[in-house]
Design a protein that fits this description.
signal; about 0% strand; mainly alpha; about 200 residues; 9 helices; about 60% helix; single chain; two-stranded antiparallel ribbon
Length: about 200
């Protein structure tokens, strides 16, 4: 009797498990994400490259020659192999989505719709690609002065150009809200508001 109850219980569990599998199917990859080749911004970029270099530059914030040079530098480090399970996201796609993220500041959730890459994958791809961009460019573009004369030359150039004394360098600008000085015209005005 006890054995019969155990068999019935086991059968009931199997039936319920089977039913749950039919209703709540979970996919490894969403169906539309599998069609990256046709849906992503890669086709748009190819058209922009062929027809409008200015739009290409606006999209990635760099011209095609700079993009190709950067891709050559980072490709060996960000390239992945295709597997039996799926086709790898190419080094070019990885760099493009990273540059787009850096250019726009869009969320991974938002980028997934133009790149056709899951937010989880973007969360791995973008930081990794940024790291390799930095490693590839740091010696040539982010080099630090080695002598006090080099530091003084940099400070002199910044003071001459920007009227900002005793500054040893800068990486990016930050807009700060200020009260516009009298009789300054549109000098302190940007599209973001009055800034310095």
């Amino acid at each position: 009797m006890l054995r019969k109850k155990k068999l019935i219980l086991l059968l009931l569990i199997l039936i319920l498990t089977n039913e749950r599998g039919k209703n709540g199917k979970r996919f490894w990859v969403k169906e539309w994400l599998r069609d990256r080749e046709n849906l992503s911004h890669m086709k748009l970029l190819k058209r922009l490259k062929d027809s409008s270099s200015e739009d290409f530059k606006n999209y990635l914030r760099m011209d095609e020659a700079s993009f190709r040079k950067l891709l050559t530098l980072v490709k060996p480090h960000i390239k992945r192999q295709n597997t039996v399970m799926r086709k790898a996201i190419s080094a070019e796609e990885r760099l493009i989505v990273t540059l787009r993220y850096l250019a726009t500041g869009r969320t991974f959730e938002d980028l997934k719709f133009s790149a056709i890459i899951s937010p989880q994958a973007l969360g791995k791809i973008i930081p990794e690609t940024c790291e390799w961009i930095y490693k590839a460019l740091k010696k040539e573009y982010m080099k630090f002065p080695k002598t006090s004369e080099e530091w003084q030359e940099i400070a002199y150039n910044i003071e001459t150009r920007w009227n900002f004394p005793n500054c040893g360098g800068s990486i990016d600008g930050k807009h700060l809200r200020i009260v516009k000085p009298a009789n300054s015209g549109s000098y302190f005005l940007t599209t973001k508001t009055i800034t310095v």
